[in-house]
Amino acid sequence: MLLSVVDRDRLSLAGRGIEEKRERGIDLSRPDGVKSTERRYAPQEKGVFEMRDDNCIFCKIIAGEIPSRTIYEDDDFKVILDAGPASRGHALILPKEHAADLFALPDETAAKVLPLAKKVAAHMVEVLGCDGINVLQNNGEAAGQTVHHFHVHLIPRYENEQNKSLLTWGQADISDEEMDEIM
Ligand code: 5GP
Ligand code: ZN
User: Fold this and answer.
1) I need a labelling partner for 64 at 20 to 30 A (CA). Which of 35, 81, 154, 179 fits?
2) Ligand 1: which residue has its CA nearest to atom 16?
3) C-alpha 40 – ligand 2 centre gap (Å)
């Protein structure tokens, strides 16, 4: 397991770290009994990428087969209002080409996502008069992903909103030893 680095060369070093721990008999199990080296969430390999998935609701929205409230569109993206909004103006950035999640998203598309989020969010602040915006992106069911077509949530926040605790979390009970182990 590795949290502190992201590039592939370093990932392989971390892999060796896990092997070393195994050889030294260090317990790699998680509190729920699942080995930390067993990946439960198997993201699609990079490069496995299809234009469209016929069973995907967002692909149907992008194709105009299912109606949506579209607030922005360009060659690569459609931005729609979420049908089950967490707040007034909750929007979703959808790449037009189907990719199940962040791991399947081509880097070229990924590089365009944050500038677009910034542009749309700035527009939202102006138009909606919101006091803040959460930019959120879920990968895998354990992370709350329900639609398996990559998307970014733009969730406007209002000082006076009823659901103040929306998108906040309590601190998990992780010991210093566990923190050290996952490094
Ligand atoms: P996830 O939980 O996968 O991160 O978010 C999926 C989001 O898609 C949810 O917030 C849900 O309300 C929204 N959603 C699901 N189906 C539709 C739909 O048919 N139209 C629109 N506009 N939003 C949808
Ligand atoms: Zn799709």
Assistant:
1) 154
2) 83
3) 22
Q: What pTM, to 2 d.p., does this model score?
A: 0.81
Strand order in the sheet with 132-136: 70-73, 77-81, 91-95, 152-157, 132-136
CA of 107 to the centre of ligand 1 (A): 23
* Residue in 170, 180, 173, 141 with CA at minimum distance from that of residue 31: 173
- Ligand 1 pocket list (CB less than 6 A): 57, 66, 68, 80-84, 92, 138, 144-147
Residue whose CA is at the smallest distance from ligand 1 atom 13: 82
Interval 5-43: pLDDT, tens: 444 454 433 455 556 666 666 555 665 655 555 556 666
Residues 6 or more apart from 104 whose CB is under 8 A from it? Answer: 43, 44, 45, 46, 48, 49, 150
Q: Which of 52, 138, 55, 123 is nearest to 89 (CA)?
A: 123
Tokens, residue 98: 């189907």
Q: Which residue has the tokens 């109606």?
A: 67
The ligand that comes nearest to the alpha carbon of residue 98 is 2
Identify whether the C-beta of residue 43 lies closer than 8 Å to the C-beta of residue 139.
yes
